[in-house]
Amino acid sequence: MPQHAPPSHQRTVQPRDKSFPAELVGRPITALDAPLSSFSTPLLVLDESVIAHNLRVMARWTTQRGLELMPHGKTTMAPALWARQLTAGCTGITVATGWQADLALREGIRTVQLANTCTDPALLRRLAAHLAEHPEQELVCWADSLATIDLLERELPAGSSLGVLVELGAAGARTGAREQATAREIGERIAASAVLHLVGAAGYEGAIAHDRSPASLAAVAAYCERLAALAESLRPLIAGPPWVSAGGSAYFDLVTDALAPLRGMRRILRSGAYIVHDSGFYRGISPLDATRGLSDQEALLPGMRAHARVVSMPEPGLALLDAGKRDVPYDEGLPVPLGVATALGGPERPLEGEITALNDQHAFLRHPGTAELALGDVVTLGLSHPCTAFDKWRLIPIVDPATGTVHEAVETFF
Question: Which CATH class, in words, describes the domain spanning 12-46+299-411?
Fold first, then answer.
């Protein structure tokens, strides 16, 4: 069943919030009602209508296939967006670190999946203490070795009952037990523990490949079949419906196909980037992008963009923008110019050009000539990789594209 959204915080705009106008200082971030034109650049913005659309698309896609979705909250680290995902039917939130798990639990998330292992003794005891005080909440972590189980049993207090998923890996990939037999042995050890209980199996297929070439798709599909086999082998050791969890934002279609035969299990995807999608990496690899021949109602749409102002035109064909590595993501592709306006929030005209490099605070925009740009113009940039876009901003405005009004902003916790 969908979970209740976490409680909202009475966060107000502060003078230190990057690119927010002075007139909003002190105002609750849930009641801004300010024109986009009042903000400064550089600026990261989210599209209200696209977020709502993407939530509907993913909810429909998973429901039709009998899947659960516990989206990766580390993508945004924004509890206000987690709340929207839970309201849309998600059954929990996934995180990547023990600290993130602690935050999610304290935000009131009922089911938190830690897609990793916490080996910090003090943090483990802190998590255990919280769960003892809040039995209505659940934390499930991963383990990929017998040494991990030794550590958890040594550090968790008596009376704990931490849920654990056995993590399956692959040679040359990231974490996870490399061999099926090892993974099975880990599961048996968890099932016999006094402070742990076995929940099922999990893995991350996104570490296997980085594109949708035939070879990559075959490698991912083979890994997913191994994960399904592990989950089935662990079933007799588990009380209650077993979990099997996989699915980043790139290959969740292959995960779904592999897990389809596992009846009576909670088949849980963890895709997180879908809420804003992107204009780069995920647009090229997601099974739900419009480039896959889907209709507008079936496809995910880019829901984040940046605005940057022209601050210098030092030579023909080159413009420097006031957004750099500290403002926009660049690890999975540089920003893409989408258009240009004479003022932030104003009508845009087409822009032919390419971002060729980023410095800390500047973007290099190469373009055919000088006539289509002027100092002070505002360039809209499509972005790649949400995970490294949100972490550069403490507070991100959400824009109503129909009116150009910012009604609220979301706070991030990185």
Answer: mainly beta
